[in-house]
Amino acid sequence: LDAYNFRATVGRSVPLLVQEVAKNEVLFTIAQHLLANSNVSSAFAQVLLDYLLPRIHEISGDKPGKTDEGKSTETKTAEDAKATEDEKSDAPSNSASILLRLFKITFGSVTLFAQNEEVLRPHLQAIVWGCLRHCAICDFPGNFFVLLRSLFRSIAGGKFESSYQELKSLLPVILTSLMRLYRQGQDETMSHIIIELCLI
């Protein structure tokens, strides 16, 4: 398949892949193998980013609150039973972990294939802003700090000058945001990650 047909064909299957990985973690190797294949790596990286970016908020693992006002007892009981049945297969923390890992292996692929940097670069600012925004408002921001660290490590070291330039103008704002989050009193692990982010 050429890149266009690969994206059109495989792109439709990414939601299914994520669902199946939640049931059987071994299937995550499918994504790893595709990103490690020089023939399709850049196309698959684009497919993953197209899927992941609109869902970046989901990596926090927060479970959205729901209001029960106006619902009958029978309706709530049925919904509670359904939620209990689905708890293991649809746990937010499990989904968050899968999405985070997909982001991380996509970032890591730029060290394998130079063309993957070209795929990632247009999305850098959106990823950084998304992480910083959700760090400030969600109850469990740890995964966003981990995602930023993974991104910065992938493009650090002077190998990816174009990506560095893409973020260079944002560095003062990024540092200010990180220090504000640090002063909010994150736990020790998160504080260490924030310090590392400032130093990368």
Automatic annotation (TrEMBL):
InterPro entries: Tra1_central (IPR046807)
Compositional bias (Basic and acidic residues): 62-90
Stretches the record annotates as Disordered: 62-91
Organism: Phaeomonas parva
Protein name: Uncharacterized protein
